[in-house]
Amino acid sequence: MTKICDSQKKQVTLLLKKVKLLIYESNTIIFVAVFKSMDPLLQSLRIAINDKIYLKDPESSDLGKRIVEHGIDLIHEIGFESFTFKKLGKRIGSNESSIYRYFENKHKLLLYLTSWYWGWLEYQLAFATNNMPSPREKLEKAIEILTRATEQDSSFSHINEIRLHKIVVNENSKAYLTKEVDLENKDGYFIIYKRLVNRMSIMIQGVNPAYPYPSSLASTVLEGSLHQYFLKDHFKSITDCTDAISPTQYFKHLVFKTIEPNG
Fold this sequence. Notes:
By secondary structure, the protein is mainly alpha-helical.
């Protein structure tokens, strides 16, 4: 059973014809159905993280969820460099050793949080664009989802997506700019992020199959969005993104002017 936020309810309505049986109660949907012609990601409402990242699945217990919830809060407050499991243990009223039963170190916790964030975005993207007939409209919607300002999602009560987005903006590069990046990549630590780039790349090719650099453009949108939010908050003089001009506006203009230069 999974709660959905108001912005998803309209999408649920569009999916009703694809469902053999659906029970809808208040703000909760219970899927007891088989979907036709639906993205496989949408057949599971759980954001699956590579189990090599954690020692024990934090979603499996109340303590694990508290580690994630307060880990987000603490990293957001003091930054990843100053963050320690000892400080987190004090915050949640538990022994530091109990946190090590879930994550080997704070790097693995950061990998978990960033992976969860990208998985959450991927789910939103798949949900919003499923069965959209127009390749251009699908790409435009994808850019909007990947670059818009984050809103709180009531579907996951133990995760503050707004604070998590801030962490990803400020700390995401620390998850992969390490000496172990190739080994971790081989072990599939970044599979969700790479899958999201690939989805975007396919959508770009759907609009212009002749465009020669779809993956480079797709990864530029994902990484560039984080960078523009960082500049907007800290180096305002070197970005055109402001409260009036969003990163979404910029990236829609960039992508479509790039792949449809005569459009």
